[in-house]
Amino acid sequence: MTNDRSNSTPQPLEQQFDRRGLFRIGGLSATALALVACGQTEAGEIGRVGVGQPTPELEAEVVNDGVLMRTMAGVSTSIANAYAHILEGGALAGSSDTLPDLGDQTDLVTLFHEHHVEAAARFNELAVEAGEEAWECGNTRLDSAYISPIFTRVEDGVPATGAAQAIPPSDDPTRDMINLVHALESMSAASCQAMVASVSMPAQRVAAMEIGVRSARQAALVALRINPGGYALTPAQEAATQDTVAAEETTTTVAADAPVAPPLTPIDLPVAIPGHFGLLSPTTWIGGAGDENGVRLRVNFETPSLNSLAYPFYSCAAG
């Protein structure tokens, strides 16, 4: 019987080269087969299995008057939302071991809340006049990177991990919340001042100046509620404050067999007039309970920058 293979039906490629077949033909032939399966490649290039997706291109950043105005609307909304959260929690009506003479600041912060709701509406009107859509939400960056972590640290603390001990909720939430109000008002004033030089239309500059002046006055009022008589900090007072803190940290005496707790991060008292002119520098908030090393949470509130602007290709859903 003649063994004629000329008329046999060709087998599919995957049947001709099953796993055992690849072992039989050897590594060199298997490599060649893999290169063929990968398709055509340029000389000197390494082939790959499959086709990768192209690198996505980011949309161009557009910074104009409308973007800046709706960014400020988001900042004002974030501040108003933060005040609503503080008021709902009732911390401002509580007592503070750190600030025993503070008193209930609920009515004051309720008024501030209304001011920032009005400010957000005004900024949005100007954004629409400049050709952009209104921004009805809080500023995403401000909420996620600054305000929310503060509320979490003060109200809930931090759970333990494999590398660190748990951090309890704040040892003085009233102190932390009123200091947050001062920080937000200071940031609002600085942000509005920065907008004056950044926008081009007179109506936008007027709005930024008016809202900024009101926030600066509110920051000064809160500073005096926290630190009565603290109108300004002279260089001599600043040096004396630093010496006092250092003395408190170095002269504490404990029993010989008692565990020594690490010193807590000091929280400086604010002053009504921190400088001769309006400041554009970050406003520092320090608060919450200290960790196992005594370190409290520190957050630097800054004026809006490129990573926090409400660009035209961003949108949000209010609520």
Characteristic terms for this protein:
globular; 319 residues; mainly alpha; Ferritin; two-stranded antiparallel sheet
Task: Give the topology.
Blueprint: H1 13-16, H2 19-37, H3 65-89, H4 106-129, H5 140-155, H6 173-196, H7 202-226, H8 235-250, E1 283-287, E2 297-301
Antiparallel strand pairs: 1-2
Helix pairs in contact: 3-4, 3-5, 3-6, 4-7, 6-7
CATH topology group of the domain at 65-232 and 282-308:
Ferritin
Radius of gyration: 31 Å
Question: How far apart, in Å, are the first and last alpha carbons?
Answer: 85 Å
Shape: globular
Strand order of the largest sheet: 1-2
Structure, explained:
- It is built from eight helices and two strands; from the N terminus they run ααααααααββ.
- It is mainly α and 319 residues long.
- The chain has a domain at 65-232 and 282-308: Ferritin, CATH 1.20.1260.
- A two-stranded antiparallel ribbon has the order 1-2.
- Helix 3 (65-89) packs antiparallel against helix 4 (106-129).
- It is globular and about 60 Å long.
- It starts with 12 loop residues before the first helix and ends in an 18-residue tail after the last strand.
- The model is unreliable at 32-36 and 243-255 (pLDDT under 50).
Could you write a compact summary of the structure shown?
Helices cover 48% and strands 3% of the residues. With 319 residues, the chain is mainly alpha-helical.
